[in-house]
Amino acid sequence: MMDSVDVKSSSGTYSITTGRSILEKKLIEIKKRLSFELCFLFVDENVWKHHKSRITHAFDTTGYTYQIRIIPAGEKSKSLSQWEELTDYLLASGVRRNTPLFALGGGVTGDLAGFAASTTLRGIPLIHIPTTLLAMVDSSIGGKTGVNHFTGKNLVGSFYQPLEVIADIDFLDTLPDREWTNGLSEILKYGAIRDEQIFEDAELFLKRGKPIEYLAELTELILKCAKIKADIVEEDEFEAGARAYLNFGHTFAHALEKVADFDLLSHGEAVYLGMLAAIKLSKLKDAEIDDSSIRRFRKLYSFQITGNTLNMENLLQAMKLDKKVVDKNYRFVLLQDWQQPVVTSVTNVGFIKKAWLTVINELS
Ligand SMILES: NC(=O)c1ccc[n+]([C@@H]2O[C@H](COP(=O)([O-])OP(=O)(O)OC[C@H]3O[C@@H](n4cnc5c(N)ncnc54)[C@H](O)[C@@H]3O)[C@@H](O)[C@H]2O)c1
């Protein structure tokens, strides 16, 4: 079974397709649509380890000529030096304006490969093949690409839409437990800002066994989240308005990611903690909400950082460098109520410190 959602963008419409074992079918479609001789596959190291034969079989049997480059796993790969290496590699290997680049991996590979695709020869065709839950429901959709800078997360990048997003559920068979909760955070974010039904749908994560065992519900949830993200980015491709709501929890999360070691805190874990802080701040700004819809999932997270490693001044300083700071005030996506996000400047640093204390206490 194969299901898809279309996303309209200024550079054309692309589809996000989900389902089991869909890679070959989609590759055949793409081959008919595009004209090229060679293509490049940028593949996450762990995806290559687990799915090497599946990937090569899919590209071989559908008649592709390709070159593979393995991307070291982990957030540290989202760097300017990796981007430079990949650009050198593409240019030295005969890339042309029509040479497609396939990004097979999670958000790290997608953001990095996407940025390389957007800048090489001013843009080559990009196809996302997300292999983590987070990438399927979030990062592969909407065209944000980029790398980290020593001053903060995602500070160098571009808006560059893919030609296709192929979310083949087969890749999730090997997803480690921690990566399921990592993706769950972005799913809960959609529940908070857009659709309360998501909280109920996400209960499959609380059931016994791995989420992949609930295949039909999981696939439906992935598609529902992809549709929410698609709707929001269609409304506001370049983040002048509603798209900012997708950053719910992220001002806190990016600061946490900057302050904590990337290996000890994943993006999704930071987003989960960031949402708890954003809810606390919303309450301090008089919203009457309780955090039980999100807190119900707390037991699924086992954080590897502790509260006493977080220094309040460092956290506040890290937030100042976030892209969302447009003036000297701290800006946040807060909730006026569930599913009623609002972008607000907060001048009361005491409130922000209280919100951070929620996170620090959670980790103590
Ligand atoms: N562009 C966007 O709109 C957007 C949105 C949200 C997040 N992001 C970015 O996405 C990144 C996080 O993405 P992520 O959580 O996918 O992290 P990731 O890409 O680091 O993947 C997580 C881990 O899972 C491994 N992995 C990937 N697929 C696997 C599979 N099928 N089986 C086994 N292991 C597998 C990877 O090797 C890695 O160790 C962050 O850098 C974040 O900033 C971008």
Low-confidence stretches: none
Shape: globular
Mean pLDDT: 94
Strand arrangement in the largest pleated sheet: 1-2-9-6-5-3-4
Distance between the termini: 45 Å
Q: Hey, roughly how much beta strand do the residues contain?
A: 15-25%
Name the helicity range. 40-55%
The ligands bound in this entry are: nicotinamide-adenine-dinucleotide
- Kindly state the number of beta strands: 11
Overall description:
Helix content is 44%, strand content 20%. It is α/β, with parallel strands linked by helices. A 7-stranded mixed sheet has the order 1-2-9-6-5-3-4. Strands 7-8 form a two-stranded antiparallel sheet. The structure holds nicotinamide-adenine-dinucleotide (NAD). Nicotinamide-adenine-dinucleotide binds next to helix 2, helix 4, helix 5, helix 6 and helix 10.
Brief description of this entry?
The protein contains 13 helices and eleven strands. It has helices at 23-33, 45-61, 80-92, 107-119, 133-139, 177-193, 197-201, 215-235, 250-259, 267-284, 292-295, 312-320, 349-362, and strands spanning 2-9, 12-19, 39-44, 66-71, 101-105, 126-130, 144-149, 152-159, 164-168, 330-337, 340-346. The strands form three sheets. A seven-stranded mixed sheet has the order 1-2-9-6-5-3-4. Strands 7-8 form a two-stranded antiparallel ribbon. A two-stranded antiparallel sheet has the order 10-11.
List keywords for this structure.
single chain, 364 residues, 11 strands, binds nicotinamide-adenine-dinucleotide
Secondary-structure topology with pairs:
Blueprint: E1 2-9, E2 12-19, H1 23-33, E3 39-44, H2 45-61, E4 66-71, H3 80-92, E5 101-105, H4 107-119, E6 126-130, H5 133-139, E7 144-149, E8 152-159, E9 164-168, H6 177-193, H7 197-201, H8 215-235, H9 250-259, H10 267-284, H11 292-295, H12 312-320, E10 330-337, E11 340-346, H13 349-362
Parallel strand pairs: 2-9, 3-4, 3-5, 5-6, 6-9
Antiparallel strand pairs: 1-2, 7-8, 10-11
